[in-house]
Amino acid sequence: MSEAPNVLVERRDGYRRLALNRPERLNAFNRELHAELIAALREAEADPDCRAVLLTGAGRAFCAGQDLTERVFVDGITPDLSENLVERYNPLVSFLRSTRLPIVAAVNGIAAGAGASVALACDIVVAARSAKFVLSFARIGLIPDAGGTWTLPRLLGDARARALVMLGQSVDAGRAADWGMIWKAVDDDNLESEAVAICETLAATPGEALALAKRALLASAGNSLAEQLALEGALQRQAGAHPDYRAAVESFRRKGASRAAP
Q1: What's the CA gap between 199 and 201, in Å, rounded?
Q2: Same domain assignment for residues 162 and 219
Q3: What CATH number is attached to the domain comprising 183?
């Protein structure tokens, strides 16, 4: 009997649903989960019929971060944790930020450590009210990784990011939404339907526009106003040359003409 996949993949109309599937370990990352998740994301990106990805967790957690059972200490050998970042987390977070696909995270339970960093690297984050974001790296002698020190100050501002990182406190979904850390907190029973509605909206939106918007937003953090204005011009030129734009304008005109007709 074959083992269950570490990532459950559902192909839906216009988007894919990916569920981290190690519920017995609260979907904590190990090597196999990393490999299957990045493979599933790349396969989705390569599919021209896929316009968005819904990322969630199986069971009662989104992701508890790194599976510490993979950490084996050997006397006389100092562990190099940067290897795991360079080989696994950094490519994953970079992909989430740079892919043409909008990534919607449906946080169904705890998102801790690198699991929180991965969720917050997604484009739109919706969370169940019972969900919690826990950045408790300091309590085990580490710093936030998987992009956490880049994402948190941009989402929360410096004061809240510093306190959250240094105190290691959890943030419930409602407060995360109030702080602008995530898009929305919803009742637990409505999480899936809310995430599906978002993905369906994205799947019906011109994909080139979404991909170019992601590029512009990602670049804005390091650009001056002049540089960003120039980038907007270049990307808008590209968007305007795409067939999606002409089709949308023609559809708008047809609808306007039909409304104006007696």
Answers
A1: 5
A2: no
A3: 3.90.226.10
